[in-house]
């Protein structure tokens, strides 16, 4: 009996020793198989970034008569970055970008959460309304921009609706007024991207355990108490993901805004993306543009790292 036990123990020990070896072999095999893809991704991600850093330290432009590989002859050290720090138009564009983000992202979140809560339950015609609700997200941003450009014209449908409600002619020049133009852009963004927030939050809402909600109901919790104490805490991670996606995407808003206002009137609706576009295509100062783009990338990276750390704290061990 003891001999059998000893044999079994020895086999168990050999198996235990073999597991790390097999795991290491599997890891090495996986690394070798994915190495070409890793090299490709590294090249695609790192080379443009290094090139952008290189160009941002020069005065290179397409009008310089030099290829980008010879831009070193136009080296200006950190002059572009010192100019950026003193560029009032850049800081104004950054401020407007932040305003659009602060207004649009919370509005999209609240509307998306309300719709997700509504669609979590069954009701007649749910699939039809679900399809209609997702339609704005499927519209090309440039098309959405042109559509809202027409809606907010002085003789457009928005003023017609306001005239019908007020009983008197309304001829508001939405896109000619600095404040109203920015509001119109934000309305367009909220209309188009609330469905994305709704879709993400609905996925998180459906994943909330039903047994916990039923238990809270039996204990006498009302719908609001169940939502605040059970549903929202369980959705924290998905909420952070949804907000992170929209913050990053909203920071890059361009198509809809540019079609609607072109950054105008004047520079009243000029965001970072529009400012970079104008400098690239009109002023052709690509070294300075590279500095702005790199600074923007750093800001977005810091925001992404903060969001990831927040998510890591929220995910249970």
Protein described:
- This protein is mostly helical and 317 residues long.
- It has a domain at 87-284: MetI-like fold (Orthogonal Bundle), CATH 1.10.3720.
- Helices cover 76% and strands 0% of the residues.
- The chain is built from 13 helices and no strands.
- Helix 2 (79-85) packs across helix 13 and helix 4 crosses helix 7.
- The longest helix has 55 residues, at 2-56.
- The protein is flat and about 75 Å long.
- The relative contact order is 0.12.
- The mean pLDDT is 84.
Strand content: under 5%
Q: What sort of overall outline do the alpha carbons produce when their principal axes are compared? A: flat
CATH superfamily of the domain at 87-284: MetI-like
* Overall pLDDT level: 84
Rg (CA only): 27 Å
Major β-sheet annotation? none
Distance between the termini: 43 Å
Instruction: Give the proportion of residues in helices.
Output: over 70%
Quote the CATH topology of the domain at 87-284. MetI-like fold
CATH architecture of the domain at 87-284: Orthogonal Bundle
Number of strands: 0
**CATH class descriptor of the domain at 87-284:** Mainly Alpha
Order of helices and strands, N to C?
HHHHHHHHHHHHH
Q: What structural class do helix, strand and pairing data support?
A: mainly alpha
Low-confidence stretches: none
Number of helices: 13
Features:
317 residues, mainly alpha, MetI-like fold, 13 helices, flat
Helix and strand topology:
Layout: H1 2-56, H2 79-85, H3 88-119, H4 126-138, H5 141-151, H6 157-166, H7 178-206, H8 210-218, H9 223-234, H10 236-251, H11 255-260, H12 272-283, H13 286-314
Helix pairs in contact: 1-13, 2-13, 3-7, 3-10, 4-7, 5-7, 7-10, 8-9, 10-13, 12-13
């Amino acid at each position: 009996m003891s001999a059998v036990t000893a044999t079994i123990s020895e086999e168990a020990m050999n198996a235990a020793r073999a597991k790390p070896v097999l795991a290491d072999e599997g890891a090495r095999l996986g690394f070798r198989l994915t190495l070409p893809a890793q090299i490709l991704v590294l090249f695609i991600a790192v080379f443009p970034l290094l090139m952008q850093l290189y160009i941002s330290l020069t005065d290179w432009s397409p009008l310089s008569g030099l290829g980008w590989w010879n831009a070193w002859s136009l080296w200006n050290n950190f002059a572009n970055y010192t100019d950026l720090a003193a560029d009032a138009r850049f800081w104004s564009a950054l401020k407007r970008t932040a305003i659009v983000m602060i207004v649009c992202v919370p509005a999209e979140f609240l509307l998306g959460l309300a719709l997700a809560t509504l669609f979590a339950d069954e009701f007649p015609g749910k699939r039809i309304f679900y399809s209609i609700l997702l339609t704005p997200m499927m519209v090309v941003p440039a098309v959405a921009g042109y559509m809202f450009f027409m809606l907010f014209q002085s003789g457009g449908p928005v003023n017609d609706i306001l005239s019908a409600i007020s009983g008197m002619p309304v001829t508001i020049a939405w896109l000619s007024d600095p404040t109203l133009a920015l509001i119109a852009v934000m309305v367009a963004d909220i209309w188009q991207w609330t469905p994305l927030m709704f879709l993400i939050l609905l996925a998180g809402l459906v994943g909330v355990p039903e047994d916990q909600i039923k238990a809270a109901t039996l204990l006498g919790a009302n719908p609001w108490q169940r939502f605040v104490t059970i549903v929202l805490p369980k959705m924290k991670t998905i909420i952070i993901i949804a907000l992170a996606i929209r913050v990053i995407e909203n920071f890059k808003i361009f198509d809809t805004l540019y079609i609607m206002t072109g950054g105008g009137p004047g520079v009243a609706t000029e965001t970072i993306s529009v400012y970079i576009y104008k400098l690239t295509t009109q002023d052709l100062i690509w070294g300075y543009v590279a500095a702005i783009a790199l600074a923007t990338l750093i800001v977005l990276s810091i925001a992404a790292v903060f969001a990831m750390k927040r998510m890591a704290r929220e995910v249970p061990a």
